Amino acid sequence: ELRCKVGGEGANLGVTQIGRIEYALNEGRINTDFIDNSAGVGCSDHEVNMKILLGDAIGDNELSMSQRNKLLVEMADEVAELVLMDNYRQSMALTQAEHQSVAMLDEHVRFIESLERAGELDRAVEFLPDDEGIDERRSAGLGFVRPELSVLLAYAKNSLFRELLDSDVPDDPHLTKDLGLYFPKAMRWRFAKHVPGHRLRREITATYVANTVINRAGPSFINDVKERTGAPASEIARAYLICRQVFRMAELWAGVESLDNSVPAETQTAMQLKVLQLIKRGVLWFLRSGLQPLAIDRTVAAFEPGVAALRTALPQVLSPELQSEMDRQAEIYAGNRVPAGLAHAVASLDALAPACDIVRIAGAGHFVPKDVAGVYYGLGAQFGFDWLRGASETLSGGSEWQRMAALAIFDDLYSHQTQLANRVLDDAGGPEVVGVVVDAWAAAHTAPVDRVHSIVAELRLATTVDLAMLAVANREIRTLIST
Asked: Residue 7: phi, psi to the nearest 5?
């Protein structure tokens, strides 16, 4: 009836939520009023927090009221830029969630159920579908639509904010050091001494962390990682902040965001989702394998240099199969007008997934990460680890138990590859001649190696691969490691 493709609300309840959902289900593009109008809220938050800090400066006779008012006017454009960037990324989060809404339907449902168990959400009040409605969506090949995802995004941010305030994350020295970035430049250098003592320091930090985690990783991210690790939301957020630094995600995000209106939006979304895959893998790794309790600065210092060195060395250490796949993805991006350097950087992220394992092995054995990587990726090619992980990912969309089993095999395969690399390096005494080391180890363990080769070859030839087949391959690799 509206006869338009896009709806935007410049006031509250320009459209009812039921109307938005109906419009979106009929392929209309619409958010919610609180998404479209959130810049107003963001601007008010900045104004209040800036006035509190400037009030402290006035109290110390560093500033008069008239000077404060003049300064506020001068900073208006920069505040607008900060606020609009928050909104840009919030809309981007919804686009990414919408892009994956069918594949992530069950994950979103589990998030809703967790909120219901905690007494934080009433589906009827928020016009979210009941179980019958969700089954109908699933049967029709539909997920949650953008107005519904907007509601989930808001609940995810509010829930994470509360958990962060109850934790020590806002007091982490890494975040305390960066608190000034919330304020315009003119305030950072003139009144820097007042920033650490801001009376809402913890609330500002918790808001920033909740926004960056949910905007980048999506509404159901925290709940999904909780289910897989048992870690509290505060530690998941800390692991995210570590991962972001170690893999220098800010550079990639800036590169992708700079492509606005010059490449297809679908290409940008695909690149952002590729970055998100590495974030999820990295967060799980730091929660399971990082030195506990996690400390942001200490962990970043331990891993960032090695990961950076490995990123540079990738073209020299990847197996031909992995290199070919990386080049293929880079060509797809480049074909959509993505600059070559950025295209290769994003295309290399899959290969960087085991980077922290490689850096840890190198550090423990006093090896160069590049040499350890040669052994690691060589074993991946030798035993088909990458292909097996890809096969397990395709099986992660069944029932809840099937999903958990497939994810367990996926994680096991990374663990097995790391253990095998350690074993090969220990037996060889080091990675002096990478190819020779891997081949020599395989030749010394002919029977179990041939057994794994045979099973993987058989799986590659199969029309379809199921959990039972992957479980057998997983067991044989575990046997090979223990040989």
From this structure: -120, 130
